[in-house]
Amino acid sequence: MIDHRRNRFVCMALGAGLALATGGSGAVAEGVPSTITAESCTTCHGPGGIGSGAIPRLAGEPAADLSAALTGFRDGTRESTIMSRLTGPLTDEDIAGIADYFSSLGAPAQ
Amino acid sequence: MTRDLTRRQAIGITGAALGSPFLAAPLYAQSSGHVVVIGGGFGGASAARTLRRVAPGISVTLLVDAAEFTTCPFSNLVIGGLRDISDIRFSYDALRSEGVDVRVDPATALDPAAREVVLQSGDRLSYDRAIVSPGIDFRWDALPGVSADVAETLPHAWKAGAQTLLLRDQIQAMPEGGTVIIAPPDNPFRCPPGPYERASLIAHYLSQHNPTAKVLIVDGKDKFSKQGLFMAGWQALYPGMISFIPFAEHGGLKEIDAGAKRIDTYFESFSADVINLIPPQSAASIALEAGLTGTGMWCEIDGLTFESREAENVHVIGDAAIVGDMPKSGFSAATQGKVCAHAIATLLAGNAPERGYLMNTCYSLVAPDYGISVAGVYQSDDDNRLSSLPGTGGTSEAGDHPQLRRDEADYARGWYASITQELFGA
Fold first, then answer.
1. Which of A41, A44, A79, A92 to mutate to test the interface with B (most CBs of B within 10 A)?
2. Which domains occur in chain A, in start order?
3. CATH number at residue B229
4. pLDDT tens by residue, B47-80
5. Is the pLDDT of residue B1 over 80?
6. Buried-most residue among B12, B199, B349, B388 (CB within 10 A)?
7. What distance in Å separates the CA atoms of residue B80 and residue B70, rounded to the nearest whole number?
8. Which residues, including other chains, have CB under 8 Å from residue B401's CB and lie 6 or more apart?
9. Would you say residue B170 lies in a domain?
10. Which residue intervals define the domain Flavocytochrome c sulphide dehydrogenase flavin-binding in the entry (chain B) (predicted)?
C-alpha cells in the first residue's frame, strides 16, 4: 500500500499545476497536502502543534526527530498508545511534509 | 497563489513567521466572499475559526443558539461529579476577536435557491457559501407515547447544559441501592461510545457514594462501540454494578411511564429511580426543512468538499451529516470543519479542492485514570466518499495494561484541552 502511494508526492506539484490550470469543477488536486493532515494532528497536539498536557509538542521540534517518530509509529518499531493506528497510510513523503510543517512553526518552549 | 502543496512552499510560508506557534501566513490570500456558518458547536466553530485563519479575505458570520457553548464531550464527567459545568462551557470571544461575526440569533430557515439564511430575529443573510453544522434533533415520535417534555422527568442529557445537570442531580439524590437506567438508541446517533462512558462514570460516582446501586443499560441495539474494552473495564472496576441488556433480550421499548419511572419492553419490564432516556435522532430540523436530507434523516455530502448532495453552495458537517465512515463525534466534526474551511477557501479562489487525510480519535474514560480509545484515518475515494483507510484505526489493545489505561486517560484530558483551546481558546 505504501509503495503504490509513493509516487503521489511527485505528482503533487504537477497535479496542482494542472488543477490550477483547469480550475474548474470536477478537478481534484493530487497529493496529500501537509496543511490538511496537520488540521487533524492539532486536534490533540494543541493549536499550531504547541502540545497539550501529556500530549507532546510538535511545533519547532527538529524535523528529523518528528520524521523518525512518525516513521517508527508507522513501521511498528516505536511503541505508542494510538499513533501506530493513525500513521499507517502515510508515505515517506507525507511524513517528511508533516515533519517540515510542524518543525517550521516556531521554536519549542524552553 | 500561496497554497501549501509542496514542502518547499510550506517552509517558505511558515518560515517567514518563525516564532509564532500558529500558522501566520494565510494559505488562500486570494479567496473572498461571505460564508454563513449555521451552528456554533465543534463543527461550526472549527469551520468559522479556520476560515478566518487561512483565508482572511473571506467574511464569516457564525450563527449560534446561545452566548456560550456547553460541550457534550466531558459532560459525562460533570454527570459523574468529576468536573463542574463551568469547566465545559466556552464563550465565542476568541472567535469575535479574530473577526468572526458571531450572532446569537439562530438560523430558522435556509433557502439554497436564493442563497439566503433566515434568522430568528427575522433578519435575512445572503451568502456565497453556507456551512450547516446544526447537530441533531430528537425523534420523539419514534418513542412510544412520549413527547419532548418527558425529558424534564427522564433527562436525555444528549445536548449538554441544563439536561446534564438534571441527570447529575437525579443520580446524586437517588436512594441507597437505587437503579439508574440508561436507554441508548439504535444506530446512527451522536457519539456512539457516549452512553457507555456515561455508564462507567455514573458507576464510578456510585461506587464511592452509593455502592449498592445498579446501572442498567437497556439498549436499542445488540452491540456497541468499544464494547470489549468497556465491559472488561466494568468487570475490573465495578464488578456486578453495570448490566448490559441488548435489544435481542428485551425486544424494544413498548411503553414508557415517566411518572412511575418504568420502561416496558416487549419481553420485560424495568423500573428505576433514574431513567436516562436517549431518543433516536436525526439531522437537526433546519437541515430537514431545507431539504438537505433528501428522503432520509441525515445529510448526504461530497466527501471532498462537504457540499450537500441536495443543494449547491451548501456544505454540511458534523453530526447532521453522513460523512462516509467517520463517526458522529466532536473530533470528527472539528476535523470536518477545518477541512471544509480549506475546501471552501479553495473553491472561492476558483481552484480545485484537495484530497487530504482526515482523522478521528474518540477517547472514553472508564474511570478518571482508565482511558480507552478508538481511532481512524479517512480519505475521500474515487466516488468522493470518505472511506476508512485499510490498515488504520481500531481500538486500544485489549488485555491487562494498566499503564496504557492510565496513559490514555491522560491523553483524553490532553485531547479535551487541545480541541477546546483550538476552537474557543484565546
1. A44
2. 1-31 (no CATH), 32-110 (1.10.760.10)
3. 3.50.50.60
4. 999 999 999 999 999 999 999 999 999 999 999 9
5. no
6. B199
7. 16
8. none
9. yes
10. 358-424
